[in-house]
Design brief:
Largest sheet: 3 strands, mixed
CATH superfamily: Cytochrome c-like domain
CATH architecture: Orthogonal Bundle
Number of strands: 7
Number of helices: 10
Structural class: mainly alpha
Number of domains: 1
């Protein structure tokens, strides 16, 4: 009787672990199957077209937009953003930099774009552009610059925001993404304070969300994190979101860019 009891106890203890592994493996297989026909490819094609198309009040393309590696250079730019830009005297991420180019080169109203809801109007075009630009650096390693003083400041600000607790639930970014082995329901949560965890998290956005059939940019991903923390939604391209991107991006040094990815 004693041997049977011990064997049963050992079996029961092992069941949750097996179930957890099976769920994680199942989600990984699900993503792998969907990746062959990732709808993000449609947004990539749209983004490439928008980059080359003459648009806006000035009727010019974005082909002279400087994303940090010189006017018109796209490959390799994504894995070095956010970074400092001398013309704006700011550290900018990909999306806020695109809005700057759309304003200065094409004549669009940057403030109006920033106020446009995600997925609509020119904001939807920004997401498509970001998707294509990210794809052009797929497989490259993240290596955000930290040579300029403002880049270093943004990293430290992002670090403080990441660990800052608040809101009605006393959450921080670190509550979900500050250590290994955490999950919500069947969803594994990457540890965004180090590699390779950040390579799985930060390096996957922009990403196509199967659950709502939408393409999500990093700005939208961070916006939704604020919502889940019960914080007020940040403004598009705010210093807080760019700082968080800088913190996570620097932590992702050496991680392979897999964006645009596909998410649940």
């Amino acid at each position: 009787m004693k041997r049977w009891t011990l064997a049963l106890a050992a079996t029961l203890i092992s069941v949750p672990a097996l179930a957890q592994k099976s769920a994680a493996d199942g989600i990984a297989e699900y993503r792998a199957m969907l990746a062959d026909g990732n709808p993000a490819e449609l947004f990539e094609a749209k983004g490439e077209d928008l980059w080359k198309q003459k648009r806006g009040p000035k009727n010019v393309s974005l082909e002279k937009c400087d994303l940090g590696k010189g006017p018109g250079v796209v490959k390799g730019a994504f894995v070095e953003l956010p970074r400092y830009f001398a013309d704006t005297k700011q550290v900018q991420d990909l999306e806020s930099r695109l809005v700057t180019c759309m304003e200065t080169l094409q004549g669009f109203n940057g403030a109006e774009i920033a106020k446009t809801p995600f997925g609509r109007g020119e904001m939807a075009n920004v997401t498509a552009l970001a998707t294509w630009i990210a794809a052009e650096s797929r497989g490259l390693k993240f290596n955000l610059p930290q040579s300029h003083e403002q880049e270093k400041v943004m990293y430290e600000v992002g670090k403080r925001i990441f660990y800052m607790r608040g809101g009605s639930h006393d959450f921080s970014c670190a509550s979900c993404h500050g250590e290994d082995g955490k999950r919500i329901r069947l969803q594994d949560l990457p540890n965004l304070t180090k590699n390779p965890g950040d390579g799985i998290g930060f390096a996957a956005w922009p990403a196509y969300r199967v659950s709502n059939g939408q393409m999500w940019s990093m700005q939208l991903r961070l916006n939704d994190c604020y919502r889940q923390q019960r914080f007020p939604a940040p403004l598009f391209g705010s210093e807080a979101t760019v700082a968080l991107g800088t913190f996570m991006g620097v932590n992702a040094k050496g991680a392979e860019n897999i964006a645009p990815a596909i998410k649940r």
